[in-house]
Design brief:
Order of helices and strands: HHHHHHHHHHHHHH
Mean pLDDT: 82
Distance between the termini: 38 Å
Radius of gyration: 20 Å
Number of helices: 14
Shape: globular
Number of domains: 1
Number of strands: 0
Oligomer: single chain
C-alpha cells in the first residue's frame, strides 16, 4: 500500500492520472449513451467557441510582452515548426496531414505541464513555462490554422469544376480565415488589452476564470466520449506512431537543438519536458472542427497520455543526468 501511495505522489503520475481518469469518465459516459454521439459536435462547439475563448483571452490579459524572455521559447517553436513541416511533407501536404502534424507538435502544457513542472522544478521553472504557454497557442495554433486554410483552399479549388482561383487570392483568403478565427482572435484581443495595464475587473475576471477552468476537463471528457464511438483497433498503429513522434522524437529534437544552441540547466530541462508531454486537447478540437482524421487524433490523444507516463519520466531522468554531467 505504501509503495502505491509513493507512486501516486510521483510528479509524472500525479499530473497524468487526472487526465487519464477524465478520458475514462468520457469513455464510460459514451458507452452508456449518457452523452450521445449526435451531441458531440455541439459540445465541441461549446468548448471551441466559448470555453477556449475565455481561457485564451484571460491568459493573454496577464501577459506583459516586455517581461518575457523570448530566446528559449523561440527555439522551442523553431523545433516544433521544423517537425510540423517534416511530418506534413512526409505524409503529402493535405489538410488531413496538417492536423496529424499538429498532433506531433502540440503539447498539453496547461493541464499536465503546469502541475508537473511546478512539483518537479519549482517556481523558477514555472516562469519559463508560463512564457511558453502564453505563446504556445498563439504560435502553433495560428501557424497550423494558416496551413490548414491554405491546404483546404487548394483542395477546394482542385475539387471545384469552376475557374481556378489566383494563388495570391487563395493566400489572402487563407490568411484572413486564419486571423478571423476562434483561436487567434481572443489571443490577439487579450494581448492588446494586457498592454493597457488596466487589468480585468473582478466581475469580468471571475466568469472568464470559471469558463477557462472548464476547458480542460470538458475537452478531455469529450475525447473519451469520441473514443467510445471510434474504431480504436483500426487506428491503434497510427496512434502509436503519432504518440512516439510527440512524446519521444519531439523532446529528443528539442534536447539536441537546445544543447547545440547553448541552452543548459533549467531552461533546457523545462523545454525538453514540455516537448515530451502528450498531445493537447486543442488538437482534438481542431480535428473535430475541420472534420479531418477525427478517429486517429482521438485515439492518439488517449494513447499519448498513457505513453507519456514512460516518456516524461525518461525525459526528466535523462535531463537530470545531463545537468549533473555538465
Amino acid at each position: 500500500m505504501g509503495v502505491v501511495l509513493l507512486a501516486l505522489d510521483h510528479p509524472v503520475v500525479s499530473s497524468l492520472l487526472p487526465v487519464v481518469l477524465l478520458i475514462v469518465v468520457g469513455f464510460v459516459a459514451g458507452k452508456m449513451k449518457l452523452i450521445r454521439q449526435e451531441a458531440v459536435r455541439d459540445l465541441t462547439n461549446l468548448v471551441f467557441l466559448v470555453l477556449t475563448q475565455a481561457l485564451l483571452f484571460r491568459t493573454m490579459c496577464n501577459v506583459r510582452v516586455q517581461e518575457l524572455d523570448f530566446a528559449p521559447v523561440s527555439l522551442y517553436f523553431a523545433v516544433a515548426a521544423g517537425l510540423f513541416i517534416a511530418m506534413l511533407l512526409v505524409q503529402g501536404a493535405s489538410s488531413r496531414a496538417a492536423v496529424i502534424a499538429l498532433s506531433g507538435t502540440f503539447s498539453n502544457t496547461v493541464m499536465i505541464g503546469i502541475p508537473l513542472v511546478g512539483l518537479a522544478y519549482g517556481q523558477q521553472a514555472l516562469v519559463l513555462l508560463f512564457t511558453l504557454i502564453s505563446l504556445h497557442a498563439l504560435v502553433l495554433l495560428t501557424f497550423a490554422t494558416v496551413v490548414l486554410e491554405l491546404l483546404s483552399a487548394r483542395e477546394h479549388s482542385a475539387a471545384s469544376a469552376g475557374p481556378t482561383r489566383h494563388p495570391l487570392q487563395s493566400v489572402w483568403l487563407a490568411v484572413r480565415n486564419a486571423v478571423v478565427h476562434p483561436v487567434p482572435m481572443p489571443i490577439m484581443a487579450g494581448l492588446l488589452y494586457a498592454q493597457t495595464g488596466w487589468g480585468l475587473p473582478d466581475v469580468v475576471d471571475r466568469p472568464l476564470q470559471l469558463l477557462g477552468n472548464s476547458f480542460g476537463p470538458v475537452a478531455l471528457v469529450l475525447v473519451g466520449v469520441t473514443l467510445a464511438n471510434a474504431s480504436i483497433g483500426a487506428n491503434l498503429r497510427g496512434a502509436l506512431v503519432i504518440s512516439a513522434v510527440k512524446t519521444l522524437l519531439h523532446p529528443a529534437l528539442m534536447a539536441l537543438v537546445g544543447y547545440a544552441a547553448g541552452l543548459r540547466g533549467l531552461s533546457l530541462t523545462v523545454l525538453v519536458v514540455a516537448a515530451s508531454l502528450p498531445i493537447g486537447a486543442n488538437v482534438f478540437l481542431f480535428s473535430q472542427r475541420y472534420q479531418k482524421a477525427e478517429d486517429l487524433v482521438t485515439a492518439s490523444v488517449a494513447v499519448s497520455t498513457l505513453v507519456a507516463l514512460v516518456s516524461v519520466t525518461l525525459a526528466m531522468s535523462l535531463m537530470a543526468l545531463l545537468s549533473g554531467s555538465v
